[in-house]
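Render this sequence as a predicted structure.
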Amino acid sequence: METKIVKIGNKVIGGGNPILIQSMTNTKTENVADTVAQINALTALGCDIIRCAVPTMEAAKALKEIKKQITIPLVADIHFDYKLAIAAIENGADKIRINPGNIGSAERVRAVVDAAKERNIPIRVGVNSGSLEKDLVEKYHGVTAEGLVESALDKVKLIEDMGYDNLVISIKSSDVMMCVKAHELISDKTNHPLHVGITEAGTIISGNIKSAIGLGLILSQGIGDTIRVSLTGSPLEEIKSAKLILRTLGLRKGGIEVVSCPTCGRTQIDLIGLANQVETMVSGYDLDIKVAVMGCVVNGPGEAKEADLGVAGGIGEGLIIKHGEVFKKVPESELLEALKYELDHWGE
């Protein structure tokens, strides 16, 4: 679905550009050092845009210093107080996220819109199933996809009528299929870029499954311009999951894909520990290759042949397999180090 291009700091979304990955800091924004450290760790892992909560005036003012120490666009997340939105814009936010419904009167929304317009900063209009207006709940006999879409488009119109259309829309629900339906409905009704995510998805396991299904169904239809995987856990996990979802859908190239076997009674090494260590290790490499981590020498070498690089475990030792051929045998304790060496010297 072709949406219009929106510029967020030094990045662009919409118009067929690559889908960008977002996350949100869980530090106190007022604590500049902690917030910057987390943003830069997220950036190193592949985060394209970061959002920070701005619940206080001190947080709004902290954005100025945070911006000096990071390289990706910063979105200010505002609820209730329109003065915080204006302060965030004045302190260098590249985009602001508001729900006009909880900002208050039209005059207050207009004051925010005017501040954004002055600096040509995009506004993300966010609507959440948990805060759907009572009249729409009554109209549709409950919280529904149709109600979410109507609520979002009402808020978009409110801002457009104030003479501003530099907008991004997000309609989120923790109900996966409702979220999917809402995106299908709204994509036919607007050309504003869509920020896609399953809100309050849950812990690492349930959140990943719900996000993979929801984002997979939405993105596979060509809907969506930027995504966030919302997880109850470290924001770093959100980036890993988002990259994997995009790569699985063929929407992002690059990065190492790790494949590993499910383990069985033949496994003689700590495959689960090794696979997790490998997955963490490879996230720092910008190589477009497949790495296989296999537990035994029965299927291992054969399975690893389809990968560019692989390890197959034996009894206290393992094989390093390169380009489908057994390359060398090393003790189990040296497998990870041997794999790292091959990655460090890949292509030489």
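Summary. The first strand starts at residue 6 and ends at 8. The chain has a mean pLDDT of 89.
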